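Dear Dr. V.,

Thank you for agreeing to look over these. As mentioned in my earlier message, I'm a first-year student in the group and I'm still getting used to reading structure tokens, so any feedback on how I've presented them would be very welcome. I ran two proteins. I've put each sequence directly above its structure. The first is here:
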Amino acid sequence: MNEQLSVKNIAIGCVVIGLLLPMINLTVISGMATDGVISGVEDALNDGRDELSDWEDPEWLVTSSERTYFANSITNAEELESGDIPELEKMGPFIYTVTTTKEILEFDESAGIITYSEYDSFDWCSTCFWTDEDGVEHQSINGTTDVTQVNILYNTQLIAGLATGIDYGGIFAKAGFANNMISFELQNKAPSIWASNEISDSVDINGGISVLENAYLGWNTSTSAVAPDFTSSIDMIMDGAVSDTGICIALTCEIGPMLVAGMGVPSSSTTANRSALYGYSDVSEPELTHIDWSVYSLAAMAFSNHGGGANLTEVDNLKERLEAVTESTLGNNKGVLINNPDALEYVLFGINDGTGNAAGLLTETDFFGIPLNGVALFLLGASGSPFDAMVEYKVGLQDLLDLVDYAGRWLAYENPLIGAPSEFPMILTGSSGTLNGNEWWLESFGGNEPINNGYLSIGMNRAVFEGTIDLSSEKANEILYTGANALTGDFATAFMYGELSGLSLPMTASGPMAGGEQVDWDNAYVASIYGISEEEAAALKSWVIDFMFPAVVPALLNFQYDASPYTTQPMNNWLYGWDDAVLAGLGRDSWVTLETNETYFGSDGLSTGDYTVYQMSTGTGANNADNMEHGLLRGYINSDGDGLCDFKLDSDGNAEYDVPCEANETYGMTEHLPWRAPHNEAASYGLLSESVGNTNTVWAGTIGGIADAEDPVNVNLVGYAIATSEVGDKVTYKDIPMVEHSISLDPAENQIQGKLIGSGTYVDAMPGALPVYFKSEVDIKVEPITNVAMYGKSTSSFLFDYRGPGNIDPDFNAEYMQTVFEIHTFSEISDDDAKIFKGKVLDHTGPFFWTDLGGSGDTELEPLKLISYVSAAMYIGGFSLVLFGAVKLARLEDE
């Protein structure tokens, strides 16, 4: 009995011990193994980052990835007017290989901080494929494929060009005046010069009284006619008469004959006026009328005989007329004599065959509704390239210079080759004084046109304001040129901000500044700026926003640079660089790009600027593993060889641009997205964040490749925005448990014109200057043991508001909001790496970690080999003891 009891106890003990061994394995040993694996993973992550040599791995210093683009190309650009909705064709995928090159600048082991520079190089990938949501592969489209889209700089160039446009608008307006003056001189002054010379010769031969007596007898043919007594007035009539400004108007002076003839036949009023000018107003009737008829007959006959007032297209002495008026203006026998009839025809009436624009001094053509006078284009062309002008106009250098001087004086064109502005004697219109091109423009801009009366189509008396505005020349000059808020100066841009936003810039006692007060930009406010009435302010506002901005400035950009609201160019240029025609000649400043390649595409190696510098936590040293590979600061390094830092911040945090600095000097380090940094916010007078739609400016803390699987993380979205992820479900991807993180970026809160324009001024916040909105959908999957992001997929879209400048708060479901470009990125753990990770980490955690006995090959984990064998032995031993005890107990029961 005792023997049986002993055997039974042994059997029970075997069963108990046999059960305990697997339980110990499941609870203690497997926990120790799992903790050991996790700890080993953490150690491996730390050990791989805590020394400089860890970061000198070529695979980290130079990496490659793929980036896929789609573009919506406009198919009806030629039919579009401002504000129209284009028809779009989606094109793509355009796939590029992105090679990222880093250089370590500093490694602080104790602080756990690495500082490095970085730049990207993009190359079109001909062998790459993009897989859509249905799993269908699409081959990369060649980057040389043309895409038509909005000219992203166009609106900003219109805004920035307003001051220049107004300045040139004045030039083109004065060109109309010059055209009329040159035509008037050829038609009237040349014959008047010849008539005055003829009269002077007759006086020299026959005497003044005899000449007038013959004129009288020629008028009064009756046999009893007796010539009046000219004795008291002959000197004044022939030589001494002058205008109120001292210009000689006697019959032997250049303008005398045309003045007298132009006043018309004698009448009570005409005779009174003429006699007062020529010194016989004290003569009694009928002798007064007889003298007046004599003077008029002499002048009118001579003027008419020499072709005064003739149609210039029908005369046969244009050559001589041009010579006479140019010699009269320039003096010193410098008259321009063009013997080549074809050249003369082109100089006066030419149309440029290549452009269809006016070229001759008397030619006017319509350019997008704007009168374009050839005299302005002649002066601009001759001033810019005299040789080309000589070829075009078929004249020699001296004749060209004399023509420039002559025409330029009438236009009041400022150029060292051009003399003082020519003065038109207003006595010829029955008025007083003289008038040059500048004075004519200032009078006509805000009032009545002084020579022909009426109103200019390009002045303030236009549209509904015609005939209602009467500004003084002094006030017009102040508004346009000389005042503190002159529209040909920097204030033109502030004026446009007011027109587009409906508000003034934030104003303080010291001027525009962040934190200042904004007031309504209305007629009353504009009136207070310029000291004019509200009606005049309304006309001025309309002149700017309804005429200059949408009509004149676009015409000027198109005329000078062939610029238009839409651009067609290869995708390579859209993404990586094109030389903007408006900015051409400004070196790197003339190049534009949507992505930042190492160099501008097609620029023969022109650098896009200094490389970016990043300061990042290694997760070691003083920086614990919770922020491993998180960004700390970012800035730039003077890497492009120009000896300049693009900007530096002064003690007040304000940016100074193009500052001399040492080669490889780092600068501009900030915790913010560069385009959202405080100095850019200040430069926009505090308007930037409101324009963007959010205040998420801090780049520091954004993740690299490591994130906390269980908590939301901050993500840098291609430099356009910072977003916080939303933690989602636990999923399995490639047999690896992961935690999903997602981002859905609202475009309404991410207007990115500030980054695309990058002017460092309040233009970055100008409503509708470049109305591009950024949308992004991001899916990240994070493995929770390593906290490594093993899957990432994003689709970023650039949406454009086609309504035009001044429009804000778009409806993103409306037809006018269209996607113009898309960026697709995708990365994942490779199948091989997933298999290795599963075998090396996941299979070595949990209760059955021992089943592969520590693994083999790529999945081998050496420290677990021994414990795996021990664990296996414990399982085998435990099961054996349970089996042994159970058999013994069964036998005892049978006995």
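The second protein is here, in the same arrangement:
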Amino acid sequence: MKVSPVRHNRTISPFKLVVSLSFAWIWLALGLDGKGEVAAQAVSPITTSGLNTQVSAPTALAGGELQHDITGGTRVGGNLFHSFGDFSVPTNNVANFLNGISFDLNGSTLPAGLPTSNILARVTGPNPSAIFGTVQTTGFNDANLFLMNPAGIVFGPNASLNVGGSVVFTTANHLRLGEADGANAGIFHASSSSANILTSAPVTAFGFLHSTAGISVQGANLSVEPNQSITVVGGNEGFEFANPDSGTTSTPVSGGVTLTAGTLSAPGGNISIGSIASSGEISASSLMPSSGMTMGNIRLVDASLLNASGEAGGSIKIRGGSFVIEESTLSANSLLASGRPIAIDINLDGNLTISNNTVPALTALAIGEGSAGGIQLIAKNISAQVATEDFTFALLDTHTSGAQRAGDVTIATENLTVGMADNGAFFIDSGTSAPGDGGNVAITATSLALQNANINSGDFRAIVSELPIDAITGSGGKIDISADRISLEATVLASQIFRGHGGDISLGGNDITLNGSSLLSTSGSFGSGAVSIKAQQFTMTEASQLEALTIFSPGGNVEINTGQLELSDGSTIRTQTGGLGPAGDIVVKARDNVKLSGEEASLRPSGFYSNSLVREDAGPTEVGGNAGSISITTPRLAITGGARVDTTTQTSGHGGNVTIKETNTITIAGQRIVPIPEDFFSVGSDTAGGIFTRTIGSEFCSGSCGNGGNISLTAAQAISVSDGATISASSTGPGHAGNISINAGQQLDVQNGSITTEARHASGGNIDIKAIDLIRVVNSPISSSVQGGPSTAGGNITIDPKTVILQNAQILAKAEQGNGGNITITTPVFLADPASFVDASSQFGLSGTVNIQSPTSNLSGTVKQLSTKPSETQALLQNRCAALAGGDQSTFILAGRDALPSEPGGWLSSPLVMGSGMGQGHEDLSRLTGKQMSEDKILSLRRLTPPGFLVRTFAIGPTGCHS
């Protein structure tokens, strides 16, 4: 029933309700008749603070408690308003709000037992309320109880609640009333001198005229009926209170809302806590403050508990400036039905600080058939420190052990810092230990640092807890972290489902670093998720790993878009399949450079890996999936210290391709320091670093093994392979080796390295090398040789630069029983020393062809290192025979000065064609001598032409030099 708003204001001296007080000057009692109806046995005194509130004398209960019945009050529709001068309840005493007679706004008596929605009680005096006994309601069914005292509220260790509905405790100065559409507005003031507008509307806001006193729960266990709510909204000022048991009058209480070894319990219902440090109003439903308000402090310490767990988990809402959790827990678990989408909602203007070693801080997990609840954290800064060594411990837990999905975890903050024990307990577990799917984890921050702080959205926690995982068949949740700076140290981010599908993992920021053997892993028997990294600088060190693994279904891709990428100390990025499903691709786009370097002494080298491998439980006829491809796009690529780019197939699936493009320079140098077996990648004691595509072969793919992948390198300036490094497309099984295509830009240097497409039982791949200026091979092989049977053949080798220099080098396309490959070298200048050789022979099969098309070759059989101090061109031109002195000769070409070639692409006639000089200065030029060249020597065009094509020749006249 709605009543028109009427201003009600009575200024009367305060009256104190202290249940231990014996009303010696008056004796009254209220009781219940046999039918449970309220029967007035005498007239109770009306409190002098107004609103017709009546308080009975104490009545002894069977259990020894003393009970004071509170009746009367002013009723407007379903709202019943009470007023007290003071309100405190000692231990073993009961303050009982009884649905007896009440009064309307005109003071007329209303009958007992009227339907009631809300009981709203205020305390007008200057003293805090110290509740050490019981507050209860009788005859109101599920009516809600509000208690408002701006001077402060304290719950002692024996305090309890016996209320049919929800309860609200606040130190606000007023309660604002109103309907959802704004109608029936009213206001209920704590001060008896302020004009009230009392209506039947529900409470919509808590109003503060200033920062009022706080609220403290000291060892109390306050609970309400299932599906009801507990709301605590306090100010931020400290205060002192009179202990109703001992009479002590100076017990201090800190400001804000504090639970010390206290419990608030609302099974399946709602728990809301807010702290206000300024004037303004906050919403009664969301506890969100109005604009410009300052929020206060909230503390849960000494094993305090906020418990909204139930058959269907409830919700917990925190609104404040700062929130401290010390060895305490907020729990909204679901036992049979589903939890709330946001079961724990923390929204702070300041900092959230968590320090728990033995108990989780926030839990909204699902135990039965329903879904778990979600957790949302919003704070300026969030920090957590955990010292437990229990690696099954989870600080934030929304996992599911039922058929439905786990809850989501969402965090938004400027700075997130989490440090946990070395064993690596879980910071967040939104995973699953049952058929249900994992929940998603989304973190947004300016700076994020996780140390030994694992995040699980799959079955990883179940695995490390040694729980059965055969029934875990769902999908892993997504892990999405976005921050300007991300640092993961000895931290695992895992979305793995052994018999399901892994979830996606995404990191985005400016500077992302993984160290201390950190791991990013998405995997599942029926497919992995994708991994996405977007950063200006992405660094992985100290054997950190990033992986996407699958068996029966396609694996997810790994995509990295960054300015600079660096992998070192055995850090790897890997995709892999162990069954029919193809492994995902690795796609790297780095705007500045990519650096792969070094190894960890007991692990694999740093680098990129995509593999198709045989599982231990694979059957002999099982078909293998293809390895993924690796694509790298960057201006500068350096692979050093034994690092690798590697695609391998051990099954009937094909090896992946390696493509490196849009680079200026590619540097591949060095090898592993210590050769150790790597059975996982089947490279044995191989120490070489570099680029590999391999088909290994095994008994599981006998006769039908996949072919190795191809390698394609493109650079605008130069490619170098040195110090034991290699570019290799090999086969050690029945599958054919892949091809290698190199476009080195200006030049290719291979020094103490190798480029090979060799095969042991199959055909070798082709090698195609192009460079504009120079290909130099020193102490190195370029080989497409094979060792297989008659049906195998060596791969073809094509080399096409302006100049080829071979020093103790081998160009090989040999075969044992099969046919040798063909070798074609097209170059204006081909220089090979006596220790170098080009060979396409076959021991028992047909030899291949060697075709060297070069107008200029090194006739002396040696290649001489040029002086580091070359002669000045001006001086040499003054003595045109200087180039022929000393006996050692090389080519000197002067183009574009005094003449032009006779046709485009042709050679420029010069008086100095062949020659050598010491280059020590002008004083040595008088000792130079030369030998006259015979006439009509022929120089051909840049590239030799097919037979029958008309070729123009050029005559070279005598130089006039003396021998």
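From my reading of the second output: The chain is about 0% helix and 40% strand. The longest strand covers residues 586-597. Does that match how you would interpret it?

Kind regards,
E.
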